[in-house]
Write a structure and sequence with these properties.
rod-shaped; mainly alpha; 88% helix
Length: 155
């Protein structure tokens, strides 16, 4: 094997692994996003049914208030997930650019501009960290929503 090819494979290993990792994070976050959008649609349908009932019984009004509270929390949660998706997508882009720059640098034997590749790598790592932070915030918001939903069962 050509020493340059071995060096290229070795230098592309880290961005390649990070591309796969950020793709997996992006896929799982997109799944959560879809589930929350479906949940919002379900709750809006339930709210329409509760609003359609002309009887303003105390229980019906209480259920409608809980549904509206859940919807408002879900909208805030989906905002956090959107930021997470953008962060993971940016990380995927930065890691891909890093791999391309390393390949061009190795193929054309450009000796300078190594700091550009490292800058894109670190930008991708910062985007992953940002996505993880917003993902943790979203988990806490999800706990609040579940607590609102279950509060009707507990005394």
């Amino acid at each position: 094997m050509n020493p340059n090819a071995a060096q290229l494979i070795h230098s592309l290993l880290v961005p390649g692994i990070l591309i796969v990792a950020s793709s997996i994070l992006l896929f799982s976050t997109n799944s959560r996003y879809s589930a929350i959008v479906d949940r919002i649609r379900l709750l809006k349908s339930e709210r329409r049914q509760l609003t359609g009932n002309l009887s303003e019984a105390n229980g019906s009004r209480n259920n409608r208030n809980k549904v509206e509270l859940q919807i408002s929390h879900l909208i805030r949660q989906i905002y956090m997930i959107r930021i997470t998706i953008v962060s993971y997508s940016a990380a995927l882009l930065f890691f891909s650019v890093t791999a391309i720059l390393l390949g061009v640098r190795s193929t054309f034997e450009v000796n300078g501009y190594y700091w550009v590749s490292l800058s894109f790598l670190f930008a991708g790592l910062l985007a992953i960290i940002n996505g993880v932070v917003f993902s943790v915030i979203e988990v806490f918001k999800a706990y609040r929503i579940v607590h609102i939903e279950i509060s009707e069962i507990t005394p």
